[in-house]
Amino acid sequence: MSDIPWRLAARSLKRDLRSADVRALFVALVLAVAASTMIAFFLDRLERGLERQAGQMLGGDLVLEQRSPFSDALRTTLEEAGFTLSDQVGLVSMISLGDRFQPASLKAVDDVYPHYGVSRVDLGQGTEQIAFGPSAGEAWADPRLAELIEIELGDRVQVGQTELTITGIVEREADQSGGFGNFNPRLMLNTADLEATGLVQDGSRVEFELLAAGPPQALDQVQELLGELRREGVEVRDVRVDRPQLGNALQRADSYLGLAGLAAVLLAGVAVAMSARRYVERHLDTAALLRCFGASQQQLVILFSIQLIGLALIASFIGALLGLAGQAVLLRLLASFFPMTLPPPGVTPLWLGILTALAVLVGFAGPTLLRIKQVSALKVLRRELDPMPPAAWLVVAVAAIVFGGLLWLYSGSLPLAIALLLGGAVLLGALWGVSALLLNAVLHGIKKITGTGEWSQALRLGARQLARRRQAGVGQLLAFSVTFFAMAMIVLVRGDLLSTWQAQLPDDTPNYFAINIQPSERDAFEQAVAPRVDTQSTLYPMVRGRITAINEQSPRDVVPEDARGDGSLRRELNLTWQAELPEGNQVVAGEWFSSETPMNEPQGWLGAVDATPQAEIVPISVEEGLARRLGLALNDTMTFSVGGDELTTRITSLRSLNWDSFKPNFFVIFPPGVLEQFGHSYITAFHLSDEEQGLIRQLVSDFPGVSLLNVDAILGQVRDVLAQVTRAIELVLLLVLLAGISVLYAALTASQPVRAHESGLLRVFGAGNRMISRIQGAEYALLGFASGLMGAVLAEVATAALYIYWLDLTPRLHITLWLTLPLGGALLIGVIGHALSRGLRRQAPAASLGLLGEA
Amino acid sequence: MPSSRPVLHAERLSKKVTSGERTLTILHELSLSVAAGESVAILGKSGAGKSTLLGLLAGLDTPSDGELRLFGQPLSRLDEDGRAALRAGRVGFVFQNFQLLPTLSALENVLLPLELSPRAGEDQMAKSWLAKVGLEERIDHLPKQLSGGEQQRVAIARAFVTDPELVFADEPTGNLDADTGAQIIDLLFTLNREAGTTLILVTHDHALARRCDRCLQLDQGRLMPFASSDFNAAGGGQ
């Protein structure tokens, strides 16, 4: 009897596909696979898209920056690793056209430029998108520079010791490697002309950048080298680590999609568990008969395993196709976000889908299936001889372990998986107890209804039916609660995520930065701007300062090795002073400057400037990210060189802030009374509506020294991405809701035979169709109400935990949830259950009474 | 004609069930020997323990005491799987409620025991057995599309399709009207005779029992020769 009954398995599977429980099992598996593959495919491609975008913003997948030219040996190593290299040189120099002079930020690019993306340049025929830089002998100016010294195309500008012809006005550069650090207007030229300018000499402040573009493997290959370079003080920007903009928002979207995928898998798992019960019950007679004909236990297990694995494979195939189609739709939604066509989806997500289907099947149906193995051949003679259903703890434990494995697979973090699993296990245990108590309470409450109307009678009878099947009732309650919980959680998180994004970038988010406002211009500027803008941030004073010592030692000796090339050590920082904590900043350690700080006393903290040993040390507040990178802690001292003076300070607070806020942000904030004596200017950000754009021209002519940066393009891009990711999230949400409905379907079909039997009996005893229909409606509604209540508790707890530990949002209470979920649950389960039982109610009592007995 | 080699030999078989503190003896020290080719009827009233006895004899259940040999093998030395393996292909069953699988067609139901131990030409065998029971036109029908008598014919074809040495029948006419029952009995005995199979039949129907070579009565847990002047117990029973 060792032969495998392939034919029988195939035939039974084919026939089985017609029965409701197998269809429910099938739909649940298809949904699980569709959700997981779609999200896996999508995240895979989103990840690649983000990397590409980050690469474009950085100017390459890897960017090295230092004060001297890079060695040939380094170039060779990088090229051998698979990188294409491009050189850039940045420096600030005065340029002139006739008698007009202007300091400009020069960016020399080579002929490889740009690695990624396109620049928007007016070469004389309107703005066009081009993927190259100025040729030798030519230069491109940005519109601000053109305006300041009245450049026309074809003019020859003096740059150092040479003259270059202006051939383009560059509106947007392909890469944004300069960032806001460059307050001077831009002039782009070719590296071939650098030597002729005579500007690059020993001792001049020149930044050499080596931009490398290559595949991820190339990056992997040079990681060790990058570590060495960092220790040598080279600033290293790695596309995977340094993602400008969007970081937070997309990180959350990514987490959300992962979460939604898992929720769909969990829901499908519950559906599989419910359908498996009915499936097994339906096949006990078959198993007994086969035992009678001489099948061994092993053969039975093999027979049913083949059927179910076949089912899983077909389901994973269809699910994977749906997943592929779904990700294509997601990708279309995000099409404008991806700068170029992405490589086609890989096969990994497909395997993941199949693995998911099998795992869900084994985990959620396995222990129930083993019941088939235990069936006795004697059952053919004595129907009542059903093997005991597996212990509930076993079913839950196996499902939990498998789901934990999937968590691990999906999150890639074993500790996270174990933590979630343990948390989930405790929660489930508690839930089981609470479910039983809750069911009791609801049933007890119903008993008190004494009315004689049809509805009160139906409620009482419905409650009594529920009470009779308490064990099954608790199981269903648990399944429905988990379903409502997962659905509610995905809806809640989506709402909070979107409103957080909206709050983060409201319509009046600043779209202009004004830099370099002189103290003498401050009031006039404010008066010119204030009446015409929607919002304006504080005018922050700004002083440039360099870190010269940390804890009285050279910074390079104190900071972690990898931070030696950190930009904050290599460049001047923008320092400001504030009495109050700026909006959007939070103190995460230490304390903000106290009110006793002698802010306005003439001497005040100036004592520190004398650098006498008795002088008190100035307290400062440092941004926590910078502190982490440089290994700084509270009470560490930092010495700054400001305008030729040395200032010794002590860190008294660490701040967190949102770098995506489009407002001026500062790494280091001083208390008032210290930096005022140094040359400083002001920075502010404001939102200018489209109708008021004329203000810009006026500001440029009235305040020629003030730099105005328009960030509309970046802001628009961020908004765009968020809108598209939002649509992606809604699509995934829909999928989760579908999975939820498949659970309801599975659970309700699973309990149909029992209900058919009951309604048959009631009919025999003389109950009318209307009465039976009301009793069933009441029973479902009660179940739905209790499940909704529990789902609300679960969703609230889980959402709060998710916000704190995963999504980095502030938890809040969702009052409406507590109303909608129980009432909605009662309505939903009541209506669906009632509709599904319609066919049963129409059956003659004889047929419904016989239904239980059939194989 | 029956040969002398026993296909089945039971020695002092007992079956007791415990309910709470009470022990109930359903079958009490039964002994029985059935020779190859013989047909034996076990008569008894409802609740006499007929089905329990059939379960024990077919190795579907284990006795509380006593020994049973099926095809010369002591069943007490075999586990559940061992007993199943012993039955495979050698024992056929006909049940009162037919026990056809509702999702399989008539042909597929007949094929079921063959598919557990595949052999060449099984489709042909199943079809020819369905033809023998007069259902060659209805091989693709599902059980619910067949009448009770037709369903029992399918079950009989299924019982004989593996060319078994022993067929157990449990009230094969219990769910059928008198006319249909009579036809089914004719069919069962004809096929049994043609195939030379040993038949053990459990029933409360005297007319049916009468057609067997030997008739025993189960009463209050004990097995005894059927005391009827209409036909003679052919010895061997207790």
Topology readout:
The complex is a heterodimer of chains A (855) and B (238).
Chain A: H1 6-16, H2 20-58, E1 62-66, H3 72-81, E2 84-97, E3 100-109, E4 119-122, E5 127-130, E6 138-141, H4 143-148, E7 156-159, E8 162-172, E9 186-190, H5 194-197, E10 206-213, H6 216-221, H7 223-231, E11 235-238, H8 247-292, H9 297-333, H10 348-373, H11 392-411, H12 414-447, H13 454-468, H14 470-504, E12 512-517, H15 522-529, E13 535-536, E14 540-550, H16 555-558, H17 567-570, E15 573-577, E16 586-590, H18 606-609, E17 618-623, H19 624-630, E18 637-642, E19 645-656, E20 668-670, E21 681-687, H20 694-702, E22 707-710, H21 712-750, H22 752-764, H23 769-807, H24 815-836, H25 838-842, H26 845-851
Parallel strand pairs in A: 3-9, 6-8, 15-20, 17-19
Antiparallel strand pairs in A: 1-10, 1-11, 2-3, 2-7, 2-10, 4-5, 4-8, 6-9, 7-8, 12-21, 12-22, 13-21, 14-15, 14-18, 14-21, 16-19, 17-20, 18-19
Chain B: E1 6-19, E2 22-35, E3 39-44, H1 50-57, E4 65-70, E5 73-74, H2 80-87, E6 91-94, H3 106-116, H4 122-132, H5 148-160, E7 166-170, H6 178-195, E8 198-203, H7 206-210, E9 214-219, E10 222-225
Parallel strand pairs in B: 3-8, 3-9, 6-7, 7-8
Antiparallel strand pairs in B: 1-2, 1-4, 4-5, 9-10
Helix pairs in contact in B: 3-4, 3-5, 4-5, 5-6
Domain ABC transporter (chain B): 8-236
Keywords (chain B): ATP-binding, Nucleotide-binding, Transport
Family (chain B): Belongs to the ABC transporter superfamily. Macrolide exporter (TC 3.A.1.122) family.
How would you describe this protein?
The complex is a heterodimer of chains A (about 850) and B (about 240). With about 850 residues, chain A is an alpha+beta fold. Chain A has three domains: about 5-50 and about 250-505 and about 720-755 and about 770-830, no CATH class; about 65-220 and about 235-240, no CATH class; about 535-685, no CATH class. In chain A, helix 13 packs across helix 23 and helix 23 (about 770-805) runs antiparallel to helix 24 (about 815-835). Chain B has a single domain, classed as 3-Layer(aba) Sandwich (Rossmann fold), CATH 3.40.50.300. Helices cover about 30% and strands about 30% of the residues of chain B. Chain B has seven helices and ten strands. The radius of gyration of chain B is 18 Å and the shape is globular. The model of chain B is unreliable at about 230-238 (pLDDT under 50).
